[in-house]
């Protein structure tokens, strides 16, 4: 069951991309927006990296690293992210012996791209504006039951 945000939380999303990424409803709205821009692979990669960093088992580290690599990094990956040649090359050379920080440079690059490029557009998007309006309307009805 999705967690519903209140109007204050929805407005707070405008403070930073971190606020959106750490809120279930905010993340869902951001993903919807990125899908409309054909760039949802960025947030999917970022989330995959966050999950990867929590991995404890060395077997799972290798399996998850290979999955992230084949989904997002390798040439012609189905959800290939746009990262610089050197970062991609470093990951490719070290993927056979992955560490929990092997995707850090790529994740940081994608985070910066989302924060500086996608996030400001998200805040101007209809997806965000409609969500803010929905929460403001819900709040008004709660405080003004005669409406």
Structural commentary:
70% of the residues lie in helices and 0% in strands. The chain has eight helices and no strands. The chain has helices spanning 7-12, 17-21, 24-36, 40-53, 58-73, 85-94, 104-124, 126-143. The longest helix is centred in the C-terminal third of the chain and has 21 residues, at 104-124. The protein is elongated and about 50 Å long.
What is the rounded distance between the termini? 28 Å
Number of strands: 0
Order of helices and strands: HHHHHHHH
Structural class: mainly alpha
Helix content: over 70%
Unreliable stretches covering 5 or more consecutive residues: 142-147
Number of helices, counting only DSSP H or I runs of 4 residues or more: 8
Categorize the overall geometry. elongated
Q: What composes the largest sheet?
A: none
Strand content: under 5%
The mean pLDDT is: 87
